[in-house]
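RESIDUES AND SHAPES:
===
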Amino acid sequence: MNLQATDVLDATSEHHRPHRPAIPASREGALRVLVVENDAPAADTLLKGLLRQGYVAHSVGTGAQALRTHHDADLVLLDLDLPDLDGLEVCRGIRAVSNTPIITVTARGSELDRVLGLQAGSDDYLVKPYGFRELLARMDAVMRRVRSQQSATARIIDHGPLRIDAAARVATLDGEPLDLTRKEFDLLYLLASQPDTVVPRRQIMAQVWDDAWSPHGRTVDTHVSTLRGKLGASGWITTVRGIGFRLGRP
């Protein structure tokens, strides 16, 4: 199916399009796809095709909307020609705070455009017009790579007497389980996964709280303080002033 020539749902401009809520909760096993496309008929055609294939799909027509909603998606299909922001900037903005896979779907087809798209953080690049089956194949290929990487990182981390099982979401110290909240566990796992690295506040806010724009708030400090208490020594987490935090070895 060619997306420029098949069943187009009735749609008008972005201004007349009904408001769509955030991406709905995924059905079991269904991939949540965010379509970022300024052309309403093209977006609705693509949505129709994805829904027929069993995906949970949602579309937005601006870069600002994409930056607000991408956290709810498992995969982003991103057009570069948007009315408010250049798609490359949107791609960089998503990639700065998230590892969500991005496939650029655009009419910009030169070699330089492809290079810039991939350098901006896109996982794949597809030029319009394209076949729908090719898009599905590329989506499957990207998600296979992502799931393989996730499987490799969902491991057990041993750091001295501290042991973190990412799959079971259990952390123990000297064999005793730690009573951690979800965010405390995510923060500890992030630090432990980079034991010799200072993890910046912005990265912590982005990966643990999905908020890269409030790096100087007290949220991180409060959780670090609580974690130190539960670990029994302040030396477990070292503060690097003005930068972030590093897992220590008390």
